[in-house]
Amino acid sequence: MTIMDYKRGSGEFLNWVVTESAFDSRYLGKCESIFCQGNGYMGLRAALEEQYVGETRGMFVTGTFNKFDDGEVSELPNFPDITKLMISIGGHPFGMDRGTIKNYERTLNLKNGEVTRSFHWTCDKGDEFEFRFRRMVSMENEHVIAAAVEITPVTEDIQIEIESGIDGTVTNTGSQHFSEGAKRIYENRFLEMISETTQSHVLAAVHAAHKIFTDGKPAEVTLLPIIDRRVIRIRYTVNVKKGSTLRFEKISAVHTTRDLKYDGWKEDDAREDMKLRAGQLLMDICEKGYDRLLKESERKWEKVWNKQEVKISSRNDFDQLALRFAIYHLNIMVKKDDSRVGIGAKALSGEGYKGHSFWDTEIFILPYFMLTQSETARTLLEYRYKCLKGARRKAIENGYEGAMYPWESAWIEDGEVTPLWGAADVVTGETLKILTGLIEQHITADVAYAVWQYYIISRDEDFMERYGYEIILDTAKFWTSRLEWDEEKGCYGIKDVIGPDEYKEHVDNNAYTNHLAFYNMKLASKLICELKAEKPVVYTRFQEQFDLEELGERLTECIHKLYCPLPEKETGIIPQFDGFFDLKSIDLTKYKKSSVVGTIYNDYNMEQINSFQVLKQGDVVVLLYLLDDLFSEEIKRKNYLYYEERTLHDSSLSKATHSVLANDLGLKEEAYHFFEGACCIDLGTEMKSSNSGIHSASVGGIWQAAVMGFGGVRVTSGQLRINPSLPEEWNELEYRIVWRNSTLVVTVTRDEVKILNQGKEVTVIVGKKELLISEGAAIVESI
Ligand code: IFM
Q1: Residue 273's CB: how many other CB atoms inside 10 A?
Q2: N or C end of the chain: which has fewer CB within 10 A?
C-alpha cells in the first residue's frame, strides 16, 4: 500500500517533486518526516495544519538539548508548535476525514523547499471549497517559517473561522521539556511565547503574526484573542463570498539563547537581546509576507543546487528524484557554521534517537560534505574536537586512557548519552539493557578515520594543527589502553565489543573494530614521526600533552602485536569475530524477504540471535569499503558474497555500502538493486518506517552509492581515484566534487569519463593511469 507518487513533476520540476497522492490518516508519519523542512538551525515536521489522531507535530532547534529528569538522557526538545490551525467552515470544524476530497495532492518541491497541499472539498452539507496550503522554512534567514492558506468557497457565501497561534502543549512523547513561560498577544496580530528548557535553561522565543486577505485586499475580520494554559491563539472570523479567495498568512520566528550569536554572552544580556531581536524580526518578516520570503529562500536553494546537483540520466526517473531527495535532506540537516552541534541520526525531522549523533555522521554523511563543502565537514569535525572532554571522561569512567568517543553524542560536554534501557525481550518480557553505549566502541576509530580522510581531501593544515592531530593522538592512546593481552594467541586483542553488526553482542576481536583501531594507532604513530621531523613546534606542543616519546613506543608495540582477523586460508573469509564460523546457520529467507525491518525479533530474542550466523547490517563489508586497499579483489568478492547472504539489512546503514562494494566487484545488478533499496528506505512503499524521522545515514549513503559507487570516487593512499562504472539502467552521470580546493566536474557515460578541472592543477588516478589535469583543463578517458 502506498500513497506516494514520484512522477508528478513536469517541465522544470521533472524529478523534483515528491508527492503524496491521497490522504490516509493511518500514514501521517511518513510525510511528516520525509517532507520535513529546515535549514540546519531548525527542522519542521510536515504535520498537517488541522489535527488528526496519530499525528506527531515536531519542531526541533539544533543543539537545544534538555534532560527531562535524572533517569533520562539529553534529548532535542520539541518546540512550541506554530503549524496548527483550527479551521471552521459555516460553523463546522474542517477536517479531511469529513465530507469528500477530490484532486488531493501534497508535494515537497525539492528545488525550493516548499511544501504545498491542495484539494477540492465537499462538506457533509454539500457545499464545495478549494483549499491550498503552503509552507516554507527559510534558507535565507534561519529563524523564519512562513505559511499561507487559501480557501475559496465554490458554491455558497460562507463564514470561515481560523484559530491560529502558538501551542506549548506539545511534548516529546509525553516528556515536557519547557516550563510554561511568558506569553502575550499584542496589536491584535502578534503573538509571543517565551519558555525555557527545564534543565539546560535554554530560553526559546517563538513568535507568530497573521495577515488576512480576501481577493488580495486586507480582509474585514472580527477577532478574539485566546490565552490558555501553555497556549495563545487568535480566532479570526471572516465572511467570504462564493468565488472569492480568503488568504491567511502566518509568519513565524524562532530564536533561542543557544543561538550561535550568543555563544560566550552573559546569560541576562543574551536573554534581553534575543527577545528584542526576535520581536523586531517578526515585524520585518510580517511586512514582507509569504511570497517575498519564499523568493528569498528560493534564491538560496538555487545556489545550493548550482553547486551540489548530481545529474543522472536513467531509465528510472526515480533515481534522479531520490538523489535530489538525499541532497535536499543533507543540506537541511546541518548547521554549517556551528561546531557546537552534530547531526542527529534522524536529523531534525523527528524524535527518533533523541537528536543524538552516531558514527552515522563520520562514515555515512561526512564523505558528502568532505567532497562537496569542505567548510561544513570541518565544522562537523570541530564538533568532535569539542566533544573530546566528554570522550576523555568516558575513557576514565571505563578505566581507560585517552579519548573514548561516546556511542551517542548530544551536548559537547555530555559525554556518553546512550539511553540505558530499550525495548522488551520477546521471550522473557523483560526490558532490555542497551549495550551500545558501553561496548560499541569502533566509533572512536571512526572519528579518527574521518579526520584523516578530511585532511587527505582538503589538505587543511590549520585544522590539523588546531584539532586534527589531537583527536588522532588521543583516540590512538585510548586504543593502547583498551587492548588486552591474549595468552593463548600470544598477541593483543579487543574483547567484549559490539561491532557495526548490532545483532552480535559481547564479541571478541570484531574484525571491523580491530582493523580500525589498528588504522587509528598506525596513523598516530606515523604522525608522531612526521611531526617530529617536519613540524617541531607542533610536536613540542603535543609532547607536553601526551609524552609523545612514550606514546610512540606504546603504539609501536601495540601495532606489532594487535591481532587483526585475516581471511582464512581455505575459504578466504575474514571471521567477523572470534567464533563466528561456529555459530548456527538458520534459514533467513523469510526475514530477508520481509519489507519491514527487525522481523527476526518476532521469533527470537537477542540471546538467540546472538547465536546465529545472521547480521543486522554490513560489518566486514564496511571494513572492506573503508580500508579499500587492505585486501585483494578476490578476497573482497568472497567476503561480500559470504556475508551478504547472512545480512538482513535491518539497519538503514546497510544497503548503500553494499551497493558501493558490489559495484566495485562488478556485480552491477546487485549494486543497482542495493542502490534502489537505499533510496527506498525513506521513499519506499513501507509507510511507517520513517515515522520517527528520516534516516540521515541512509541519505548520505544514497549520495555515496551514486558518487563513490557508480561514480567510482575513492580516496585511498592519499590519492583521488575515479573509476566509474554505470549500472545498465543509467546512460550518464554527472557530479561535482572538490579535491584540494579544486572543483572537478565529472561526467560519466557508458564508455568514457570526462573530468573538467575548474580549479588549480590536480592529479587523479583513472584506471591505472595517473593523470595531471591542469587549471581549467579537461581530460577524457575510456572506461
Ligand atoms: O548508528 C546506527 C547503528 O549502526 C544501527 N542502529 C541505528 C544507529 C543510528 O542510526
Answers
A1: 16
A2: N
Distance 358 CA to ligand 1 centre (A): 7
In whole angstroms, what is the distance from residue 283 CA to residue 288 CA?
Answer: 9
Q: How large is the average pLDDT for residues 649-671?
A: 98
* CA-proximal residue: ligand 1, atom 5 (nearest): 651
Atom of ligand 1 nearest to the CA of 695: 10
Alpha-carbon distance of 727 to 740, in angstroms, equals 29
Span from the CA of 164 to the centroid of ligand 1 (angstroms): 38
Instruction: Tell whether ligand 1 has an atom less than 6 A from the beta carbon of residue 501.
Output: no
Angle at which helices 548-561 and 469-482 pack, to 10 degrees?
A: 50
Give yes or no for residue 669 having a pLDDT over 70: yes
Structure pTM? 0.98
Percent of residues in the chain assigned helix, strand, coil, to nearest 5 = 35, 25, 40
Domain formed by 350-764, architecture: Alpha/alpha barrel (1.50)
Active-site option among 249, 502, 505, 676? 502
Strands (E) located in 16-170: 17-20, 37-38, 42-44, 59-61, 85-89, 92-93, 100-109, 114-122, 128-137, 144-153, 158-167
Answer whether 41 contacts ligand 1 (Cβ < 6 A): no
Q: Is the pLDDT score of 1 beyond 80?
A: no
Rounded distance between C-alpha atoms, residue 347 and residue 269, angstroms: 30
Task: Show me where the domains of the chain are located.
Answer: 35-308, 350-764
Q: Are 35-308 and 350-764 equal in CATH topology? A: no
Give the chain's mean pLDDT.
Answer: 97
Q: Ligand 1: does its nearest atom lie under 6 Å from the Cβ of 498?
A: no
Mean predicted confidence (pLDDT) in 511-536: 98
> Ligand 1 within 6 A of 359 CB?
yes
Name the 3-class secondary structure at 418.
coil
User: Going by CA atoms, what residue is nearest to atom 4 of ligand 1?
Assistant: 500
Per-residue model confidence as pLDDT tens digits over 82-101: 999 999 999 999 999 999 99
First to last CA, the chain: 41
Reading the block at residue 471, the C-alpha cell is 583527536
Give the CATH fold of the 35-308 domain: Beta-galactosidase; Chain A, domain 5 (2.70.98)
281 CA to middle of ligand 1, Å? 39
Catalytic site residue 488? no
The DSSP secondary structure of 455-468, one letter per residue, reads HHHH--HHHIIIII
The tens digit of pLDDT for each residue in 382-430 reads 999 999 999 999 999 999 999 999 999 999 999 999 998 888 887 888 8
406 Cα: distance to centroid of ligand 1 (angstroms): 13
